[in-house]
């Protein structure tokens, strides 16, 4: 009797041990050992995702469509009735004062004495050259900006408000897209964002006034600017651990290619309206992805949509010309205890507050993002000094990000995520402009990779979006730094260095994720740094 009981207990223990071993099989194991980490399926999907990644860069087109253009006061006493006149006729210094730097004043003119001249003859004695007044109308040197169409002239704050609205809209869209993506799927989030982006962007090309332009620009970013983060999460969840950093380099590189394409299109397009249409009309092609882009397998498994997950896994194996074993399939499609979703679903905030480890990460990662975006955009706003062409400036400063991204592959795989963030953030203040831009581009790419690896699949997009959203404080603050030079010439650079140092020290509070599996559950995310899972 005792011998039978012992045999029964031994058999039960063997079954439990066997079941435990089966439970340890996860998607990363299957990718590495069976269906392929970076096969034809992954390559094809990343190529498809590259298009919306590239399009995501077009949210910055306000840099050109709302660009500042040369202008001066209109002189109606000398026959100027309208905006289309020579910017610097021979007589202009008789009517418009010079600035301290030797250029024409853009916003002031001499007070008229009530006499008239002509376009060919406008003498100084018809103006009081001891008294200046503000412009009542403007003459423009270029036409390819909303400043000309909507006669913004010296309303610099109004012109710059387009950039502020873009940042606010991006700040709002990130948590919205994160929730939508985690709730309804990566594919649908990508398609909805890209469609909204193209729709509101295309309509904005027909704006009849600046208010309409601003409202549509805000709606475009608020409802559509999440297309890049959607594509990024989609791509990184698809590949195995060995190729995650490579994928993390491809994504921002495609974004940089989009920025360069934006600068090139703006350079060769005379009308800002035509430029906007040319950039945004292709967005509607992404709707077709609903029929031939498969959903993220990792998301399907995290939501326990096992029938769809089975079909997706079989499709991946077939495309990669590999096979997935029945044992692995059953292990993946077996609900994990910690993945059981309570009736009514889980509440993200409660889960974060319940987990001290996750709460510490949620409090730390946004500070990394604030510091990085602060330095990144702080360097970017000074890019006009590189050459005489604003278009060439833009293309050069965006192009430098591509070698930075692929340099990061070697750095991250060699020394890991934490040393990369720690070193580049704290030294950013010491680097020259282009080298500094390359360094901060390394940091930005590392941030995406490292942040996404710290959070579980079920909350990954929401928490990555939250960190990026809070990080927009840095991009909002960066344009204000040049004004601080009035108080102390080096103050902006001290702020860049101080923020970088603070963020780099906080990096030390989080575990290294190099070579770790991408966590699917909260328990797996909490275990990062405690156990080494190969």
From TrEMBL:
Keywords: Membrane, Transmembrane, Transmembrane helix. It is a multi-pass membrane protein. It is found in: Membrane. The chain crosses the membrane at residues 157-176, 188-206, 212-234, 246-268, 274-293, 358-379, 391-415, 427-450, 486-508. InterPro entries: MFS_sugar_transport-like, MFS_trans_sf, Sugar_transporter_CS. PROSITE patterns: SUGAR_TRANSPORT_1. Residues 1-20 are annotated as: Disordered. It holds the Pfam family Sugar_tr. Its main location: membrane. PANTHER family: SOLUTE CARRIER FAMILY 22 MEMBER (PTHR24064). This is Organic cation transporter. The lineage of its organism: Eukaryota, Metazoa, Ecdysozoa, Arthropoda, Hexapoda.
């Amino acid at each position: 009797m005792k011998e039978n009981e012992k045999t029964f207990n031994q058999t039960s223990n063997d079954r439990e041990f066997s079941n435990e071993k089966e439970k340890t099989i996860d998607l990363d194991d299957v990718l590495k050992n069976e269906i392929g980490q970076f096969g034809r399926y992954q390559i094809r999907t990343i190529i498809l995702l590259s298009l919306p990644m590239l399009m995501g860069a077009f949210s910055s087109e306000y840099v050109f469509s709302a660009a500042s253009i040369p202008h001066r006061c209109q002189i109606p006493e000398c026959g100027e009735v309208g905006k289309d006149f020579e910017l610097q006729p021979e007589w202009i210094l008789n009517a418009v004062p010079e600035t301290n730097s030797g250029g024409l004043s853009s916003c002031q003119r001499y007070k008229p004495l009530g006499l008239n001249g002509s376009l060919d003859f406008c003498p100084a004695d018809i103006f009081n050259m001891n008294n200046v007044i503000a412009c009542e109308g403007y003459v423009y040197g270029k036409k390819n900006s909303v400043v000309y169409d909507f006669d913004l002239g010296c309303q610099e704050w109004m012109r710059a408000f387009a950039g502020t609205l873009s940042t606010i809209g991006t700040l709002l869209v990130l948590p919205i897209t994160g929730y939508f993506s985690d709730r309804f799927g990566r594919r649908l989030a990508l398609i909805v964002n890209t469609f909204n982006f193209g729709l509101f962007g295309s309509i904005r090309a027909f704006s009849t006034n600046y208010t309409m332009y601003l409202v549509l620009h805000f709606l475009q970013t608020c409802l559509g600017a999440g297309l890049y983060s959607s594509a990024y999460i989609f791509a990184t969840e698809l590949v195995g651990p060995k190729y995650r950093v490579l994928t993390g380099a491809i994504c921002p590189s495609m974004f940089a290619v989009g920025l360069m394409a934006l600068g090139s299109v703006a350079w060769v397009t005379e009308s800002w309206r035509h430029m906007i249409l040319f950039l945004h009309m292709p967005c509607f092609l992404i709707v077709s992805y609903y029929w031939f882009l498969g959903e993220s397998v990792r998301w399907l498994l995290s939501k326990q949509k096992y029938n769809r997950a089975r079909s997706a896994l079989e499709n991946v194996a077939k495309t990669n010309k590999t096979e997935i074993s029945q044992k692995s399939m059953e292990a993946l499609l077996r609900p994990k205890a910690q993945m059981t979703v309570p009736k009514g679903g889980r509440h993200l905030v409660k889960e974060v507050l319940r987990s001290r480890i996750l709460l510490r990460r949620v409090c730390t990662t946004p500070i990394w993002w604030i510091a990085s975006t602060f330095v990144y955009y702080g360097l970017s706003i000074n890019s006009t000094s590189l050459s005489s062409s604003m278009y060439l400036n833009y293309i050069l400063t965006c192009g430098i990000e591509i070698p930075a991204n692929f340099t990061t592959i070697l750095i991250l795989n060699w020394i890991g995520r934490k040393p990369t963030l720690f070193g580049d953030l704290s030294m950013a203040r010491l680097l020259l402009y282009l080298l500094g831009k390359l360094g901060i581009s390394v940091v930005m790419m590392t941030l995406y990779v490292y942040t996404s690896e710290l959070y579980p699949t079920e909350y990954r997009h929401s928490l990555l979006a939250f960190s990026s959203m809070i990080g927009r404080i840095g991009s909002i603050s960066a344009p204000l730094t040049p004004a601080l030079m009035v108080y102390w010439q080096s103050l902006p650079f001290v702020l860049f260095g101080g923020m970088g140092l603070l963020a780099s020290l906080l990096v030390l509070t989080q575990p290294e994720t190099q070579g770790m599996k991408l966590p699917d559950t909260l328990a797996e995310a909490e275990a990062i740094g405690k156990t080494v899972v190969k």
